[in-house]
Design brief:
There is one protein chain. About 30% of the residues are buried. This protein has 4 domains: about 110 residues, no CATH class; about 120 residues, no CATH class; about 80 residues, no CATH class; about 300 residues, no CATH class. The longest helix has about 60 residues. It is about 70% helix and about 0% strand. It is an all-alpha fold.
């Protein structure tokens, strides 16, 4: 008698009343295997009887696994009765309907597709930290001028006719710059070009009595140049590999939004924070097993719960991001008997970022509203001026109304984008300042009187060399964090500085009557632009100078901690041999930490700690001198701010004096 072939469908004959159900389960097996959601090598129910996972969904997966195993055994002609009995028992005990099972399948497939979509964006291109090995961000003027020319040719000269020329430098370049293709941004860019070229054609072919070259047309020209600068700054931070990929491959919308438009950056989503921290870790070649810290005292329950939540979020992010490596355990494990906890650097950074975002949510909203209001007011200056002169018919002719509307629209659109970049760049800088100050709190055993702000996290174990190393790595990541965005903002502010210098020269020429052909409305616009631009630049300089000043603060704190450790070396024998008791909490805690080290004597541990502090202080001094916050390519300091304030104050006083004499 021949051995029957037990395929999935032939198993139906075992229990006819469940035949339809088994066929549906067989279909589920096929779907699960298709999407890689079923591991047929996992344990069967009897093999995993100790497992506590008895949810309906786990029961379904177990059942499907058994079916797949039966099918696989049938292919090898070794399907035995034991597996059939297991299958019968599972089928009889199952209380789940086919509808519920298909809902589980739909949920799993949806998550699988989301992971595939996310990884399709990040795994197979040079914009992925695991593929691209160049992690240091820098502003490349070669790419800046190249892409400035591309945008200038498109917006000012040729429009869509420039696409074939641009594609000579890369077959996908015009598509990635969104000069070609069908998308909202590409249509917007074409409309902007069309409005600009039409306004110029109308101005030079029609007689204009109200619209002048100095006002409306200069506005349009200035806006086009500004647009070219802003867009070119996006590409100036790319390295050679990224640029080559940009030329040869069409980017997906997700990559384009995240890389070119920084989608999610201002809101600091968990995936953005994780990838930015990963980028910084690889930039400094940081071993993740050293990226841990311990606190000197047990954190408050709400603080510990907050950090635990960040840890859970990190796990979720990494589960959905295939290019991320496994997080290695710390080099030194905490002692379970003392219930000590150790925290990953990501949790610390995310907690500081989330705290700042939450506390300054209203401030961020105020900055955005201010940018919108100023952009609207600035765009309406010519219209308000004309309507005050001729209330009934400010522009007189239809074609002049068209030019006026185009000028107003362009000014509002570009000023809004530029101002949002500037104010959010300032917000980004103040966040970095907040994080650096909080890191200063974390190494200070005593309250810092010169920083009037709330301390978010406890002081770290300053007598643990591994924790001090972890703090140093977190500090370095904090300074490098968001470098690509920061470089683009610095590029914009550099352009803003050049704009300010040019505006001041024109205003001085007018004030001293060296040139008298400037129109009044043109000068009014220039005064408004100069005042607002100076305010933005000085605000960023102040924040940058404060960031660089934190280096000095952290250096002094580390030296103070080193002094405490040196003092311990003087009194350690009294503590150990004569049983002295200190009323100083820091000394008592330090002695407790030193005595925990069984491998070394307290004296050896003190000497080792002093050597480690010397190393970290030298590293901090190096970063202070070579990796400070810069603007216009210069290290920002309060001395620089004072000199700039005196210079601009002198110019402003001179101009005001001349204007007073004139009127």
């Amino acid at each position: 008698m021949n051995t029957p072939k037990y395929t999935i469908n032939s198993i139906v004959s075992i229990q006819d009343q469940n035949s339809n159900r088994i066929i549906q389960l067989g279909q589920l097996v096929n779907e699960k295997e298709k999407h890689g959601l079923l591991d047929i090598n996992q344990n069967t129910p009897q093999q995993s009887s100790n497992s506590n996972e008895t949810s309906p969904k786990n029961e379904l997966n177990t059942k499907l696994t058994l079916i797949a195993q039966c099918s696989k055994k049938h292919e090898k002609d070794d399907l035995d009765m034991e597996h059939l009995i297991k299958f019968q028992q599972l089928l009889q005990n199952s209380q789940q309907s086919a509808d519920a099972e298909y809902l589980y399948l739909k949920e799993d497939i949806k998550k699988s597709k989301e992971r595939e979509k996310l990884n399709e964006v990040n795994v197979h291109d040079e914009f992925n930290p695991s593929v691209n090995n160049n992690f240091f961000e820098q502003f490349r003027f070669r790419y800046f001028f190249e892409f400035f020319c591309y945008h200038f040719i498109y917006f000012v000269l040729l429009g869509p006719l420039a696409i074939p020329l641009i594609n000579l430098r890369g077959k996908a370049l015009s598509r990635n710059m969104q000069f070609s293709g069908i998308s909202g941004f590409s249509i917007q860019q074409f409309v902007i070009y069309l409005l600009n070229i039409t306004a110029f054609a109308v101005f030079y072919t029609k007689k204009c009595d109200v619209v002048t070259f100095q006002v409306e047309m200069i506005n349009i020209i200035a806006i086009m140049i500004t647009r070219c600068v802003v867009l070119a700054c996006k590409y100036a931070t790319y390295d050679r590999k990224k640029m080559q990929y940009l030329r040869d491959n069409i980017l997906s919308n997700e990559v384009r939004n995240s890389e070119l438009f920084f989608a999610g950056w201002t809101s600091q989503t968990p995936i953005i924070i994780h990838r930015s921290v990963l980028q910084c870790q690889k930039a400094f070649n940081i071993d993740p097993s050293l990226f841990y810290i311990q606190f000197m005292v047990t954190p408050e329950q709400k603080t510990d719960a907050r950090l635990k939540e960040h840890q859970d979020i990190l796990k979720q992010v990494r589960d959905n991001d295939q290019f991320c490596q496994r997080i290695p355990p710390p080099v030194v494990r905490p002692k379970k008997e003392k219930q000590e906890k150790i925290y990953f650097g990501y949790e610390i950074l995310k907690d500081l970022i989330d705290t700042y975002q939450l506390k300054h949510r209203k401030f961020r909203k105020f900055l955005i509203i201010s940018a919108v209001v100023f952009s609207l007011m600035r765009s309406l200056i010519p219209f308000i001026f004309h309507i005050s002169s001729k209330p009934t018919d400010p522009y007189m002719h239809a074609h002049e109304y068209f030019i006026g509307v185009v000028s107003t629209f362009q000014v509002f659109n570009m000023y809004l984008f530029f101002c949002l970049q500037a104010v959010l760049g300032y917000f980004d800088t103040t966040r970095k300042l907040f994080m650096q100050r909080q890191l200063s709190f974390m190494i200070a055993p005593r309250k810092l009187k010169n920083l009037d702000m709330e301390k978010i996290l406890p002081t770290i174990d300053i007598f643990n060399s591994y924790t001090i190393k972890g703090w140093t790595l977190i500090r370095k990541v904090c300074m490098e964090y968001g470098k690509a965005y920061s470089l683009r903002v610095q590029g914009l502010f550099t352009f803003l500085g050049i704009w300010i210098i040019g505006s001041i020269i024109i205003l001085v020429l007018d004030a001293f009557k060296i040139v008298t052909t400037f129109e009044r409305i043109f000068l009014v616009q220039l005064y408004v632009d100069t005042i607002v631009s100076l305010f933005l630049v000085f605000a960023l300089i102040v924040a940058g100078a404060q960031i660089n000043d934190v280096f000095n603060l952290q250096e002094s704190i580390l030296n103070a901690n080193k002094t405490i450790i040196s003092d311990l070396g003087l009194i350690i024998n009294g503590f150990l041999n004569e049983k002295y008791h200190s009323e100083n909490f820091i000394y008592t805690k330090a002695l407790e930490k030193l005595l925990e080290q069984q491998q070394e004597s307290p004296e050896q541990k003190i000497q080792s700690l002093l050597q480690h502090y010397d190393f970290h202080i030298n590293e901090l001094i190096y970063d202070k001198n070579h990796n400070p916050f810069t603007l216009f390519g210069l290290k920002v300091t309060f001395v620089m701010l004072q000199s700039a304030a005196v210079a601009f104050g002198s110019v402003a006083a001179t101009v005001l004096s001349q204007l007073t004499k004139k009127h």
